Amino acid sequence: MTTTAEKTTQHEEVVTHPIVQDLTVPGTGYGAEAKVMALITLDNGHDHTKPNTFGLQGMTELQGVVDTLRQRAEAGEIHAVGITGKPFIFAVGADLTGVPTVTRREQALEISQAGHRAFGAIADLPVPTFAFVNGAVMGGGLEIALACDYRTISAGVPALALPEVFLGLVPGWGGAYLLPRLIGPENALKVIVENPLSMNRMLKGPQAYRLGIADAMFAPGDFLEESLRWAGRVLTGEVSVERTDHTTDEAAWTSAAAAARALADAKTAGRSPSPYRAIDLVEAARTRSRDEGFAAEDEALGDLLMGDELRAGLYAFDLVQRRAKRPAGAPDRSLARKVTKVGIVGAGLMASQLALLFAQRLEVPVVMTDLDEERVAKGVGYVHNEIEQMLGKGRLNQDRANRLRALVTGSTSKDGFADADFVIEAVFEEMSVKQQVFAEVEAVVSAECVLATNTSSLSITEMAGRLEHPERVVGFHFFNPVAVMPLLEIIPGEQTDDATLATAFAVGRSLKKTCILVKDSASFITNRLLGRFMGEFSKIVDEGTDVEVANKAIGGLAPMPPFVLLGLVGPAIALHNSETLHRAFGDRFYVSKNLQKIVEARKPGYYLPDGSLDPEVEALLESPESPVALSVEETRERILSVIAEEVGLMLQEGVAQAPMDIDLAMITGAGFQFWNGGVIPLLDREGISEKVLGRRILPPGAASVPA
Amino acid sequence: MPRTASDVVFVDGVRTPFGRAGEKGMYAQTRADDLVIKCITELLRRNPQLPKDKVEEVAIAATTQIGDQGLTLGRTAALLSGLPNTVPGYSVDRMCAGAMTAVTNVASAIGFGAYDIAIAAGVEHMGRHPMGEGVDPNPRIIAEKIVDPEALSMGNTAENLHDRFPQLTKERSDAYAVGSQDKLQSAYAEGRIQPDLVPVATRHADKGYGLATVDEPPRPGTTVADLAALKTPFRAHGRVTAGNSAGLNDGATACIIASEEAARELGLPVKMRLVTFAFVGVEPEVMGIGPVPAAEKALAKAGLSIEDIGLFELNEAFAVQVLAFLDHFGIADDDPRVNRYGGAIATGHPLASSGIRLMTQLARQFEEDPSVQYGMTAMCIGIGMGGAVIWENPHFSGDNNEKDA
To answer: What was the ipTM of the complex prediction?
Structure first.
């Protein structure tokens, strides 16, 4: 039994082979006098949709190839070594799919050391080495290039990054040591820390070239040919590459590291170890020898690979890369009906955002309706204005702008819905209003037309109840701002049929949203959990804990402090949400008296535009009779505890099909942190789930180091 | 409207190294369109004085216009070469004389005054697109005996040529072929071929990336004895062998053709001046004779005689076909005016691309030899045709008196 279990969990590496071919370097002569380069092509035998990665086996092969090349170089058979990738892909780094099988620190160290050995062997070759970065390059892929003496890059490279910190690692195959010495500490920390912590931003070829990561850049069409000609000029001495010694300016390293730490504090509140480890490595690279630098990277990788934070990061990566693409519980795609025209009831801000999104992504006519001409004109005007702005910024051309503009029309009559296949309502959040709207729509549309509701809290079943065809109603809940937030909660009512649900998922997919199936229940997943979190936060503050203390307690959890978010959402909407949740679930959802006062006073939030607490708001706030000031840790535990409780309830009630859907929803709908794995891995890691629910929520190993 | 005819010049020409067609060839997994795109890109790189938007036409020849040699290659390759989308393009097919025809087409348009600067090119990847791929000959060709079906195989027409001219023996053909190999080897050693070669990255799923920097087909050191031992695949005890004919090859060529005025204005090199050209038809069964009447027609138009031609670049589809030309004009088999760098028997003959190779080599020889005033590029063409183009050497030192004397 044990062996079978082991076999099924054993990881099968897709091996990136280093294939070697000798070639004559152009411009170095003809016949015997010509310089020979051994060119390594990294190729895992698949097309560009499965990029090259490095696992242990690939690393071993590479080591073997480099050892042979060393002998050949010493024998004078080759005069240079080059490395390039397969078409469109150089290499995208370590094969992390094997990480869940790493259970001991020695294994982790071995992965790190194997990389250092192979890449170090390249750096130590006795002939000039060149990396020809022809395509996407990340992590270990960039580090193998950094191990070479020279680098060229294709102007067509779509993505260059050291994304390790995004996942909870450090660039530990030489990147943290070599990059700052090559391009200076400030630029290196941009690539190693700032970009990964900024939604994992990537550089394009020309940007990487400007940073000094490559010595020369060529057009993609004949990139390898031109790179080899350039290599020829280097070999003949016609071109020499001047490098700046960045190690002399100590102050630059200190200040760059300090700036990066401040950024890491702002983004993670000190709750994710990897950026700090990376910054430490970079800062120390100035004075370390290569061996010392690589050894320090080994230690950092060993620690981080064995830490739960990385495992949570990989779990989040898997959610976003895999689970998001195959939504659990969605009916067979073939059941989906074609959508050739969309109706939108309402022309308010939400409706207008939806109109723009549908027009852009589905490229079908979109008809907006509202009660009077003025509202309709305003809604259509909003869409047209947005298109105009995109046109102005060069994000679309005139033809495309004309096409989109023509797609979006408005009317006070719903007659235009007659040939629509999908009508979504975004009217006032009131059951009777929505029921009325759907009844009016049903009078116009075909029997199969899907009726979708963008309700954020109301029952889909109830909304469909009075219709002739309730099976065509589905919840389709977007998040604000619609263009930015990836999440779309899709909610079937009791009678919703598979064709309707399949169509909803197909439309969601076309809209490029992350679709999650949610049970018909008050406020669904994201707003419910976020509401519980915000409510408890407000309650703790209302009871007497300092806001700053409370903010510190939840640092690194949500993308911004709750009261800042409240200002963005608007106090009235926030209050309405909390009241709705309170009505549905009772006292565990807190309605803040102070928030009510802010709404009554029509204040736009707690803070002034400069970020300070508004004194007028401060005057409104009711002081508790017997204030309870919690510590940072007490506050954190209380807030995480209520989140754990709510997660437990949602799973018990079947609101979410699996814990993974809750995390995926919180990452894509509420901006919860990737490196926390959303929220559940954090609850498990800090022992909160155990305390509140008496059990972990995810099995050990799913988003943590297996025991 | 008033119209002035322009002088048309050959500005610059390049080619890829030629490869052996087939699974083992260096271009086995390299796309045909990429080969010709690399040539066009190289021309633009070598001639930075030429603004890309000044190119007004791209004509690309390919015999088998299927797959990566289809899709109006002249247009798609132009776009893929980084030319602006205002530059039009089209495809050309006249079998082996495709590139030659692409040149004479754009030259005609330039001479007529329709535009000033064009790129002409040719490509044939005979590994990916073997001769005869997807052909569907009209049954009337046989029913009405329009062409002997055997004449659709070029090797047979070469055997037929040996029949017609019994003095063109297998021995003469083999000796000529050895000469071709020797001359190419010398030209390489002297660095005369390399300057006009575009290195091409070759990718192979099992071998990774490589770089083609020299021709793959040449067999330097070949002897007459080696050739005597080869099989005669087209006819038992025949005369035509793989050794005295061009092989099956992959490769591409490209050149810039311009009005002389535009070339001078932009500071582009003027390597050859077009005098005139002619294409003719002959019996398809002896298509190899085609260059003879083509040359005669072109010479007549130019008011020149064969003695005025100081350099010949003749395509060597088959040794016998070159010998037929030389015999006709009373030129020795090893005349130093003919194919100084060797010919297609050594370099290979990727059908529709070869015409521009002849021109590029003639241009270089013009530069090397200012004593020559006129040169000719000529080739035989499948289904019974011949083409000849006469060029004037702009480097000619102009000692006409000696010539007259």
So the answer is: 0.93
